[in-house]
Every structure is written in C-alpha cells, then in structure tokens.
Amino acid sequence: MSLWVDKYRPRTLDDLHYHEQLSSRLRSLAASGDFPHILFYGPSGAGKKTRIMCTLRELYGPGVEKLRIDQRVFVTPSNRKLDVNVVQSNYHIELTPSDVGMYDRVVIQDILKEIAQTQQVDLNAKQRFKVVIINEADALTRDAQAALRRTMEKYMTNMRLILCANSTSKIIAPIRSRCLLVRVAAPTDEEMGKVLTHVAKKERIHLPDPASQSIIATSQGNLRKALLVFEAMRMQKPDLTGDIDVAKPDWETYCNKVADSILQEQSAQRLLDTIAERMVEKVDDQLKEQIVHWAAYYELRMRMGSKKIFHIEAFIAKVMTVYKNYMMMGLAPDLDEV
Amino acid sequence: MPPSASPAKRTTASPRKSQSSQNPGEKRKTPAKEKDKDGPPPGRDIRNFFAQPRTTAAGVGSAPAKSAASANGTGTGKRPITIDDSDEDEPIESKPPIKTENKPRASTTSKHFTSTSSSSNRPIVLDDTPSPPPKSAAKPSAPKSSSKAPAAAPSKPMPLKRKVIDSDDSDGGSRAGAGTGVRSKPNKRQSIGVGRRAVAKGKVNYLESSDEEEEEEEEEEVEVKPTVVAKGKKKEPSPMEIDDDEDDPDDFDDDDFDDEDADDLPKKSKSKTGAKPPPKPAAASGATKKSSTPKKVSAAATKKAVKEETATTPKASASSKAGGKSVQAKKEKEIDGDEADGGVKKEKQKFDWRAAAAARSAGPRAPGSKEIPEGAPNCLEGMTFVFTGELDSLGRDDAVELVKRYSGKVTGAPSGKTTFVVVGENAGASKLNKIKEKDIPTLDEDGFLNLIRTSSGPVLDEKAIKAREKEEKKIAEQAREMEKKEREGESERRRKEKALKGTGIAAKKVAPASAQLWTTKYAPTNVKEICGNKANVDRLLSWLQDWDKNYKSGFKKPGKDGMGMYRAVLISGPPGIGKTTSAHITAKLAGYSPIELNASDTRSKKLIENSTNIDNTSLDGFLHGGSLQSTTVAGVKVDSKTCLIMDEVDGMSAGDRGGVGALNVLIKKTRIPMILICNDRTLQKMKPLQSTTFNMTFRRPQPQEIRSRIMSILFKEKMKIPPNVVDELIKGTNSDIRQVLNMLSTFKLGKSEMDFDEGKQLIKINEKNTILTPFTIIDRLTHPYAFSKTNKESLNEKSELYFHDISFVPLFMQEHYLKTQPAALSSFEGQEHTMKHLERVSKAADWISDGDLIDRMIHGSEQHWSLLPLHAIASTVAPAFNIYGGMRSTGGPGGWGPSFPQWLGQNSKQGKLQRQLTDIQIRMRLRVSGSRQEIREQYMPMLASRIVLPLAKDGSEAIESTIETMDEYFLSKDDWDAFVELGVDTMNGDAILKKIPTATKTAFTRQYNKADHPIAFHKGDMFAMAKKKIADIGPAPDNDEVFEEDEPVPDDDEGANGEDEGLNDVSKDRLIKEVKKKADKAAKGKKK
C-alpha cells in the first residue's frame, strides 16, 4: 500500500532514469575508494536523497538500506533537553540538525564528533569510513557550519560527509570548498514523462498523454509531486481521461484565498511565494513588478529575521498600500523612489 | 471652499497690517485693498486655517467646494467661520460667499446644535434666519441681506477694545462664554469676562466694572470708539471680531484677529445699529450653550429679544453693574425665547455619544497649534473650571494641568461654584444643559488661554480671601503646636537623660528631633492628627475599647457596627496612608500596649504558636528562667493589656511557612486584641483570614485632607511651596503621605522653595520607581496625544518605555499597530482616509519588520546588544509614531483596551505543529526521503486522501485501509491526530474532524488499539504507554534492553526484497516476526 513515490523509488544508480552522466560519475566515485565529502544541492523533488541512497548502496551494498531510527537526547548549555532523531544503518548516519533550531551547533559538536571519533570496527567492511548525511544543510546556522569545518578535515579517515541542501547560497564558503559540489537539477518535462510512463507501466495502467502533460505542468519539475499527483488523479478518476483538474493541496488553496482577500479588500517563505504568485496572476501588469519586488524584499527579511509573521504582515500592508494607491490614482509608485 | 477660504485668508493676513496702522478711518478704506494685497499670504493662512481644524482637506485641494463643505460639516467650528467670512466679503466678493453660506448652514445647523460647540458660531446662524434683525427681516429670503446683518454686528465690537467687550456682553455674550472677551487684552478682558459672570451670579468684585459700563455705552456709539481703541489695544478687538465673525478663535493668533477688525470696521459703518440686536440674541443663546437652532428661532422671539435689549442697554450704560445684570437678564430672556422655539428642534439637540467618544479619543484636532501662554503665578486662583468637549489644540490633560499650574481648580461637572466652563467641540449635552440652567459663563479655548495670558493675579472675592486667611492661620497654628510638641519632647528627653545620668542606667537613646526623619518627627501622635479614614479609626478605637467586654461575652454580640463578633481586625489599604500609625495610636488610646510584629520578624508557625501564647502552659519559659506569667514576643511582655499588631501580613511568605494558617488559629482563640495589617486582602493566601477577622479597608485620603497637614509641616520647616504644588505632589504620589514627606525632606536639602515645574519633576523622578506593565506602556505609546505637539515626552523618554520590558513591548506594539485609529488622519475621509491609513500601517509594519531584523542581530549569534536602543526605536517608538491614536475596539472578550499579544500563542502553536510535523516526518523517514516541508507540502495532501478523507466519506468501512496505510508509513494514532491538525483551509483539523462521525472515530480508535502496529522507533516517553498496552497481550518486554538495542525496525518488505541480510542482527528479525504474528492474530480475530 505504499504510495507510488515510495514504491518505485530507484534503489541503485542503474535504476535512475535521468541525469545518466551524474549517475556514472557517482558510480566511479564510489568505486575509486577515495570518496570525497559531497554537497548535493538542487530543488525539492529532483532526486537528491534518492541519489544519495543509491550512492551509498554502491559504496556499502544493500546493508545501507537497513535503516533504523534512533533518538538521541542531549543537553544544551542552558540545560534544556533536546531530542534529535537519527536515522542510521550500520554504515551511515543521517541527521537533521536544523530540527533543533538554534541548537544545531551543539548537535554538530557533540553527536557528529562522537560519531567521527569511533572507527569502523568491522574489518570486512567495504570502506573504512562511515558516511554522515546532513539534511537541510542550508538551514544550518552559521555557528553550526563553522563547527563543521574542522571536523570535516580532522576526521576525514573515519567519516565522510554528505550534505544535502536546496541551495548553496546559505552554506559558507569554507564548507563549499571542502566538498565536491553535485548539482541535482530538476528533471525536464520529457524526463518526467518518462518516469511517469514507467510507473504507469509497472502499475499496469494506461496514462493518456493529456493527463501526463497536466501532471507535469502542475508539478513544476518536482518529480515527487508529480508522482503524488499522478496517484491522486488515479484515485479520483481511475481511467485518467477527460479533463482532469489536478486537485491543489490544501495549503495552496489557502494561500490563494489569502491572496484573493488581500486584493479584494484593503482595509512562511513558501506562503509568501505562493501568495505573491497568486497575486501576480490577478493584478494588472503594472503592479506585477511591484509585487514580485516586495515579495522578494520581505522574503529576504523573513529569512534574516526570526519572527516571520512580522514580515508577512509588512508585505501584506505594503501590497495593500500599493494596490490601493494604484486603484485610486491609477499609477503605481516608482520602485526607485521607494 | 474657495469662497469661504478667501475671507479667512483675509482675516488672518490682515492682522499684521492692521496692527501697524490702526487708524480706523484708514481701515475702512483699506479692507478691499488689503484683501487683494494679501493675496499670497491668504493662501498660507487659509491652509493654517484649515489645518487648525485639523484636516487639510482644503489644503490638499483635492476636494473642491463640495468637499470643503463636507469637511466643514464635520467640524462645527469651521463652518461658522466660512459663513462669517462670506459676510464680510460681501462687498467685495459678492457671489461666491453667499453660496457657501447657504450650504454650510443647511448642513451644519443641526450639527451646531447637537454639538453645542463654541457659541461663536451661533450668532451667525441667527443672522441667517430671516426673522432676527429688523433689517434682515425685510429681506429674509436674500442671503446677502442676512449676511450683512451679522457682519454689521461684528464690526461694532471690533474697533475698540471696549467695544469688543461690549459686543461680548451684548452680542458676544454667547461667545463670551467662549471667553473671547476675556482673551482680548490682559486684565481688562479677563476681568470683564469675570465680571459678567460674576454679575450673573450676583457677585460684585470687579476691577473693571468701569470698563463694562463703557462698553455698554459704546455699544450704542459703536462707530465712534472703534478707531480709538483699536490703536490702543490691538488684541482686544480681534477676539471680539472673531467671535462675531464666527471664525474659530482657536485657529488664529491674536494678530490675525486684529486684522479682521480692520476689515470689519468698514462693514460696520455700513451696517446699521438695528442690525446689532440680532447678533445679541444669538450670542446669548450661544452663551447658554443651548444655542438652539438659529433658524428656528422664531421671528417673534428675536424681536422680543431685540426689544429687551434696547430696553436694557440704556440701563446698562447708567451703571456698570446694573448694566452687567441687565445684559445677563437679556440673555436669559433671549434664551427663554430660544428655548421656546427650540423645543421644536429638540431632536436636533440629540447628542451623539458615539461620535463624541470617537472625537474625544481622536484627541485635539490641531494639537499644539496655539501657543500656551505664560501667566502670572496663581492667576487662576479661586476659579473653578469645568472642561467639556474637545479643545482644538490642548488635550484635556494638558488643559487641566494648565489650570492647576495657576492654582485653579478643575471639577468634573458644572455647578453653581463653577467660574468658567471651557467648552470645546462636541461638548456633552447634559453639561451644556446644566450650564444653561445655572447660567455659568463659558469660554472657548482661546478665551481660556487668553484668560491665563491676561490675568494678572488671583481674583478673589472676600469669602475666598477669608477662607484663605483662615486656612493660613490654621496652618500656622498647627505648626506652632508641632513646634511646641517638639520642644516638649526635647525637654523631656533632656530631663530623662539628666535624671539617668548619675544612675548609670543606660537611657533609651532618642534621637533629637532635628536628626529624625520627617516621617517619624511628624508622625501623628493622636487620633486627631491622622489624615483621612476618620470613620475607620473611630471604629477601630471603639472596637478596642469594647474588646474586653466582648471577650467576656464570648464574641457573641455583634455590637452596633458588627465588630463585636471579631477577635481581630484586618486593615487593608495601599502603603503610606497611615494604617500602622492608626493601629498604634488607637491601641495606645484604648489603653493597650501595642506589640508590633512585622515582616522583619520571623513569623513562622512555630514562632507564632509559641511566642504569642498568652496563658503559657508550657514549661519552656520556666526552664529558661523566664517569667511564668507571660511570654515575650520580640522582647516585650505580653499581658492582658497588650494589643498585637501584625503588620504586613501579606508579606508572610517563604520563611514564614504556615504563618497565615497559624495566625488564623491564633486569632480564633486569642485573648488579646489583634490588628492585622496588609496591603491587599484579596490575595489567595489571605483567604483564611477573611472569615475570622473584621475587614476594614483604609482608603487613600483626599488631597485636601492631607494638604493642610503637609502645609503646616512645610510652614514649620520654613519651606515655601504653594498649595497647588503640594496638591500636585499629593496627587502624584497617590496620596501617599509618607512618600510626600520623604520627597519633601529630601528636597529641602537643596532648596526650600518649589515651583510647579519642580514639583512635577520631583513626582516624575519618584514615579520612575515603578515598572510599568506592557499594557500601560502600549497605552502610553499609542494614545491620541502620544506624539501630538502638546506632548512633552522626548524621544528618549518614549524609548525608555521600551526598556521597561524589552521582550514584551515590541510584541504588544505588533499586536496593536493595526488596532488604532491614527490621530494624524482625522482630517481625511473616505477613500483617502483608507489610503493614508494603509500607508501608515505599511510604514509601521516596515518598522516592525526592521525591528525584527535588529532583534535577530541582538539575540542571534552576533549578540549585538548595543543595538537595543535602535531596536527600541524600530520596534516600538517608530511604529507608535505612525499609528498613534484612539484604540479601536479590539473585538476580543475584553472589548476595549490593550490585549495580550497573540504572537506568543501563535508562536507556541507553530512550534507545536512543527514538532508534530517533525515527528511525522521522522516516522515516515524509513519510507520517504522528503524533509519536513516537503512532507507537508507534497505528501500530506495526498496522504490525507488516503487516511483522513475516506473516514469522512465512507465511515467505518474505510478504517481498515486507513490503518493499513498508516502502518505502512509507521504512523501511530497520535500521528494521525497531529496529521489532521496540520491541515489548513478545507482540510482544517476541526472542520475535518466534524465531518467524521463520532461513531467512526471511536471505531477507528478502538480498532487501532486492538492490533499491534509497526513502529519506526521508540521515543523515550513512549515507554510508559507502551508498557500498558503490551501488558494486555503478554509478558512485557524488558524495556531497558529494547532501549539499548536501538529499536529494531520492522521491515517486512525489505526482508522479501533483499537477500543480502547477512549483516543484519538476528534480534531485529525476530522482533519483527513477533510483531507480525501478533498483528496477524489480531487480524484473524477480527475476521472471526
């Protein structure tokens, strides 16, 4: 009963459907015996994790797929107890330090070091090192990243790091320079089409072209989303014919409602994006630039600050002002002036 | 607007010129020219003109005539002005003015009445009505004629001061209320105004009675005098004119007024004396506040009034006093007439409370637009003011302070003792009625300011002077008494010392009086000296005196005040009002020797039980060699004539564990009277005492009660502090006598004189000690005057507020910046208002957004704590600046007032959801690679259609498949709940849960609990629960072992898929199998 996304997740590098070149490079890296620290980055749903797991399998064999989850408790300097979930196999460990917010530095310092300091005992193991996967590396605080630097060099013999991030911009340069950067681009439409048909074939259903097209259009290069949407559609209309409107996720419709109400009556990152996008769809051309500008402006602030809602409010107030002004005066204020 | 505006310009612009050359003759000629010449300045003036009212509607220029008219409509004060102007202009600017006149009247009259704004407006209105002046009556229909009439009236007063005065009396009487008359030239006017009023009341003392006479005379000879006076007193005419013109005095400076006079003069000449009468009645009506609708005043009534006036005027001229009276009489009559007529229009008088409240909360319309005059010290002494309505430039608080600064008195409601009522816009209807009823003179804001400016010193009648003398005498006497007592005390001390000198017994050291704290030195020594709470003290005394009797009767007889039932009294009240002192004095007076235990003594249960045991039955004392008959408390013998005073009972805490309980037990069986003292008896821990003690609440004494004592102390200490400053001190400390004394004794070290400002400062310094709550802070930051020009708080002081609570104040700001109605926007309307409001909100939001960035730099890794002041500005002061104004209804349960920031709740909710999402993600991690966000955004909508929606749609049938899917992703029932909670919009948790029938929900829970489910891992806190469940099925597994093993992963599919399991430990597999079996069994059981 697994969802298709999970059911048909490729397990080896050979099973991967796209980015053949990348796959072969990873394969040779794994075979070389000199495996570097790697930073995988790319948009959500492009296949980073899948690729990481495939690479690990290439390194250690199927044993890496025996995952278990462990919860570590550690104490912050301020004596707060925090739980960190650790996913691990015998060969690797996967952490999401950003789960604990600003305490991620402690996680890196305590847990990572502890792991790094234990050597592989199994002499038969294929590799002498363990692999540590750090998820959401771009959400690591600066301190945590700084804490990583030395660890990465010092314990190179015992441990290799695989960082997984959406973008490299938030990762400090010293770390980037210590890693092999691997970009996992979102699949193209054709590639997605290929995957979809592959899944359809395995499920023994017929996927008509128009349906495939609309799936691809809504998922915007996100293969995970595409497959989920595919399955949702299939549940809705088993034959997948006729015009199918892809059900939007609840949060998206909610954001749309927010956007609509902003425009109707002037009195979280994703959220902001979605709201802005929706508004851009709805407003006049002259205002589009404005809204995009302000969305970007406040999104940056949101990331820099700590209380997101403050910035969203400011954004909404700004948009309302601009919109109202436009409605009343018929012209949008010059961006340069503002 | 334009037409009306031009006159306004003229008036404002002209003043300068007119001042320079006051020749009446010249003036007459010049008016037209002046207008032209002043072309440019007018523009500016106009804006000022409008700006004062507060809105820039005119200034903005967007709204043409119509908008202007509407704007006027809102503010009653404005309209009148425009009308007047038009009248004046008539000769020159013929048509436009007329038009404007008509409009405003129609729309505004009703407002005038309702609002009962400054009386100045009214006269005009009357003019409009066809009936009033004989002249105008002839051409009732023609707007011009009517307009002329009013113009004429004004013109008279303008020329001379006196005239002005006259006009005040006669025409302006109404306005006079407004105080224009007063304002004009310093002493005279003021006095005149006073005189008038005084006359009305039957009082006599006027310096300027002669002036009045003159005025009256002048009325008749209007034309002649103006010129003469004009030169001499520039200012005076202006006020009058203003009134006549109906311009709001508020808007203009005195200079401006003068100019107007010049303009008016020519008109005057044109206007006939006959025209005058009408203005008078109007004025009168205005004065009374009644100011019934001008239109309605019937012609007959007006005529009457006129007649009367004419009749009275001669008399008036005969004798000043008589004149004054006659004028008054006239007014009254007129008023009556008005009333009769006005009865019809009563509906118009209906007072719009909501509008008034809104206006009040909006604050002054042109804050700080007027210069606040520097008056002679105590110049308002002996006067009692009542403020009603909304003043143009002064906030109510400022105005009240101003009065107090000059030793005036401010009361809440007008009464016979009220000297002036200062009337602003939208004054309360009941107050206006009362004013009319009692015929209390009124002032408008300008009049009020002028009163201060011009008053030379206190105007006291004999009574007041006598009273004052008496008080001074009393103070001196008291001081003498004090001194005597002190001397006696001193000699007593010396005597004792001397007596003991040779004996070798150490005398109890008593510090000489000069070395004592004032609070000790001047502590009351008998009941008479206790300030305030007399009744309570008396009751306390009688209770103590009756205590023995009551004790004998077993506390069964309530006595006359019900106190006979109690063995103890609990006194509560704020600090510094003499609770302890009263207790001590009464105890001594009743013949008891008081023993005080306060927070500095340990008062634990044990101590209370042991030390206050009067009939000691233990051998403790014996063994220690102490007396057997009595125990000692704090080293004092307790006998039947002892009164135990437990001070600061609410301070019994930590160290005094069980103290209150033990105390209560003691109270139930005490054989001596006990007086308990606390600050707040509503505290939870004081509960036990409620039923066993008589509750006596001490209130803060009234300032008057304290004042005389403080004054005598000051007298004795040879400090010179005026009574009004003492009052301020007392008020500023909330009647805390002790604090006042301490403040004064400290102050005396540096200076022995204190003026009003120093007093204020002293209070402020001492006030600082309290930490304000964020609720108060937010109120202080955003109230309508927070950033008005009259507000004297500096930027620094504002940001100080932030430092009262640096973490909460910004949150409160964020909570409230959308909930105000910015005072700065009161001049905008409709769409424009919304627009400007949005702009301000946006600015405030930007500041708050900036503030968050700064906050991040402070609290983030960088720890730039030096940025705190910047944060104060960005997060608190700047947003407040943008949006300060009245608070809108918060819509919450409280309705009004600041509410607690929602951010905190929302933030913790977000944190909780985030945690739940993390839980879900980590459970699903074995199947899914996505991060939290990806799970929420992509998986959850899909999964919801598998595990949530089917339950709503298909009911119990879907349970099995739901559980299956959940098991697949290692989701537990708890996770399912969290899953639902994470939904938004149509998938909102509550909405969805409502759709699922309760039966399905229970069935779902039951079925889920029936079977075992694979779990991804054990969480630390799951053990407790897990134990229970497992216990049902079989022997509980050894949790410790499981924990150590790093939770095995149930891995069904994997087993099938991968043949390379060699490396996995066996235990895991075994466990998995077990789970599976159980699950299967359960499943089978179900099927069966």
Automatic annotation (TrEMBL), chain A:
GO biological process, one term: DNA strand elongation involved in DNA replication
InterPro entries the UniProt entry points to: AAA+_ATPase (IPR003593), DNA_pol3_clamp-load_cplx_C (IPR008921), DNA_Rep/Repair_Clamp_Loader (IPR050238), P-loop_NTPase (IPR027417)
Domain AAA+ ATPase: 34-187
UniProt xrefs under SMART domains: AAA
Keyword Metal-binding among UniProt keywords: no
Pfam families: DNA_pol3_delta2 (PF13177), RCF1-5-like_lid (PF21960), RFC_C (PF22534)
SUPFAM superfamilies referenced in this protein's UniProt entry, alphabetically: P-loop containing nucleoside triphosphate hydrolases, post-AAA+ oligomerization domain-like
Keyword terms of this UniProt record: DNA replication
GO molecular function: DNA binding; DNA clamp loader activity
Gene Ontology CC entries for this record: Ctf18 RFC-like complex; DNA replication factor C complex; Elg1 RFC-like complex; Rad17 RFC-like complex
Superkingdom per UniProt: Eukaryota
Presence of the UniProt keyword Secreted in the record: no
PANTHER family: REPLICATION FACTOR C / DNA POLYMERASE III GAMMA-TAU SUBUNIT, REPLICATION FACTOR C SUBUNIT 3
Name of the protein in its database record: Replication factor C (RF-C) subunit
Protein's gene: RFC5
Automatic annotation (TrEMBL), chain B:
Superkingdom: Eukaryota
Presence of the UniProt keyword Acyltransferase in the record: no
InterPro entries linked to this entry: AAA+_ATPase (IPR003593), ATPase_AAA_core (IPR003959), BRCT_dom (IPR001357), BRCT_dom_sf (IPR036420), DNA_pol3_clamp-load_cplx_C (IPR008921), DNA_replication_fac_RFC1_C (IPR013725), P-loop_NTPase (IPR027417), RFC1 (IPR012178)
CDD domains: AAA (cd00009), BRCT_RFC1 (cd17752), HLD_clamp_RFC (cd18140)
Protein name stated in the entry: Replication factor C subunit 1
SMART domains documented for this protein: AAA, BRCT
Family per record: Belongs to the activator 1 large subunit family.
CC per GO annotation: DNA replication factor C complex; nucleus
Location within or outside the cell: Nucleus
GO process terms (BP): DNA repair; DNA strand elongation involved in DNA replication
Gene Ontology terms for molecular function: ATP binding; ATP hydrolysis activity; DNA binding; DNA clamp loader activity
Keywords: ATP-binding, DNA replication, DNA-binding, Nucleotide-binding, Nucleus, Phosphoprotein
Compositionally biased spans, kind Acidic residues: 209-222, 241-263, 1038-1063
Entry annotated with the keyword Ligase: no
Stored PROSITE patterns: BRCT (PS50172)
Stretches with biased composition (Polar residues): 9-24
Predominant cellular place of this UniProt entry's protein: nucleus
Region (Disordered): 1-378, 475-503, 1034-1070
Pfam families membership: AAA, AAA_lid_RFC1, BRCT, RFC1
Chain intervals with Low complexity compositional bias: 107-120, 136-155, 282-303, 311-327, 355-369
Origin species: Saitozyma podzolica
BRCT domain mapped to chain residues: 375-453
Listed Basic and acidic residues bias regions: 25-47, 92-104, 342-353, 475-494
